[in-house]
Amino acid sequence: MKAKVIKNIQINDKYGYMVIESKELCASSEAGKFFMVSPRLNNETNSDPLINRAFAIADIFDDDTILFIYQIVGRVTSMLTTVQEGDYLNVVGALGKRFTICESKNVALVAGGAGIAPMIILGKKLRSNGNKVTLFYGGASKKDIIPTEILSTSYDNLEIATFDGSLGLKGLVTKLLLASSEKFDNVYTCGPTGMLSAVVKAVSSIDENIDIEVSMEAKMGCGVGACLGCLIPTIDKDGTVVNRRCCVEGPIFDGKTISFERLV
């Protein structure tokens, strides 16, 4: 599907964000789902790049425009920085499973780096459902923390940590979570795999009864479950390890079921 680019802003040399317009895409968009996006523009028919890239839905505005955030890490994401307002992108979605939206609870969101993207719309949805939301946001440095005005509708409380101490607490974002005096009913998290594993362990050490959902990151070839390139090892109730497709059975998983040891 073609989606018109309304805005494309490069925040710094590591991150950018884009707003695209499409009522059809908005109609299927929910917190936790994602799009497969190609930087091939307008009516281009070439096959470069061959494989689209997955981007989480970051926010929806007025039921016709969608925000997504991209991290500039390679050739394809660098191509996104050259997209101009008025261009049309090829977009497939929305795909995958959504987050569970609880009601009237005390909730923590834990985001690392580009993992902030799905937390924006999630936080907004949770707050509109009567939840109190604390956002713990971490990165390697202040360059990894996107401008807080983009996040403003997503939280009641915001706490930031950077590994080098250039913004907020010096250290890992899990340090903020473990030091919090709040008693959380639910935790949602997205970020690098190592961080997700640490967050699940931290939550279990606080209270094993806290529900935790994770948005997993994986390299996706097709986004519809056909290529089997994004398998996530999960543990069933009987202890059996089952590989599940991140693009179809995920990207949202019960954090307690992920076999992080097999992902490292």
Counted up, domains total 2
Tell me what the CATH architecture of the largest domain is.
3-Layer(aba) Sandwich
Percentage of residues assigned to helices: 10-25%
What is the CA-atom radius of gyration, in angstroms?
18 Å
Poorly predicted parts: none
As for the CATH topology of the largest domain, it is: Rossmann fold
Any chance you could write out the topology, listing elements then pairs?
Elements: E1 2-10, E2 15-21, H1 23-27, E3 34-41, E4 53-56, E5 59-61, E6 65-71, H2 75-80, E7 88-95, E8 106-112, H3 117-128, E9 132-139, H4 148-151, E10 157-162, E11 169-170, H5 173-179, E12 186-190, H6 193-206, E13 211-215, E14 231-235, E15 241-245, E16 252-254
Parallel strand pairs: 8-9, 8-12, 9-10, 10-11, 12-13
Antiparallel strand pairs: 1-2, 1-7, 2-6, 3-4, 3-7, 5-6, 13-16, 14-15
Descriptors:
264 residues, alpha/beta, Elongation Factor Tu (Ef-tu), domain 3, Rossmann fold, 7-stranded antiparallel beta sheet, 16 strands, 18% helix, 35% strand
Question: Would you mind describing this structure in some detail?
Answer:
With 264 residues, this protein is α/β, with parallel strands linked by helices. The protein folds into 2 domains: 2-95, Beta Barrel (Elongation Factor Tu (Ef-tu), domain 3), CATH 2.40.30; 106-262, Nucleotide-binding domain of ferredoxin-NADP reductase (FNR) module (Rossmann fold, 3-Layer(aba) Sandwich), CATH 3.40.50. It has 6 helices and 16 strands. The protein has helices spanning 23-27, 75-80, 117-128, 148-151, 173-179, 193-206, and strands at residues 2-10, 15-21, 34-41, 53-56, 59-61, 65-71, 88-95, 106-112, 132-139, 157-162, 169-170, 186-190, 211-215, 231-235, 241-245, 252-254. The strands form 3 sheets. It has a 7-stranded antiparallel beta sheet. Helix 5 (173-179) packs parallel to helix 6 (193-206). The chain starts with a strand and ends in a 10-residue tail after the last strand.
